[in-house]
Write a sequence for this structure.
């Protein structure tokens, strides 16, 4: 019985860690997948570094909170924003596709400012 409880607790911790990888807290505000870049800039300020590239993907439009793809291809911007919150916190890298958060990555500890 103790083994089951330990396994359950361990798997719960792993799942909670995986879920937290998709969010970023800036002060009391929370950033998550799908948020627009304007919201991230408003809540978190200017990033330490930015990089912009482009990808080609199937076009899509948003309807009722869902992205609906349709035939063809389009070039969309991909931006990487890196935030350095100082030496006592981990840096974070946010990947935007077409102006919306696609992923949030945790990096090493930040640097002294």
């Amino acid at each position: 019985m103790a083994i089951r409880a330990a396994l359950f607790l361990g798997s719960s911790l792993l799942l909670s860690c995986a879920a937290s990888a998709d969010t970023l807290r800036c002060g009391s505000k929370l950033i998550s997948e799908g948020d627009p870049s304007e919201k991230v800039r408003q809540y978190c300020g200017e990033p330490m570094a930015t990089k912009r590239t482009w990808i080609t993907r199937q076009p899509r439009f948003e309807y009722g909170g869902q992205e609906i793809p349709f035939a063809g291809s389009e070039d969309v911007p991909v931006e990487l924003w890196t935030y350095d919150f100082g030496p006592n916190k981990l840096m974070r890298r946010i990947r935007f596709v077409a102006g919306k958060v696609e992923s949030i990555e945790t990096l090493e500890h930040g640097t002294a400012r």
The chain has two helices and eight strands.
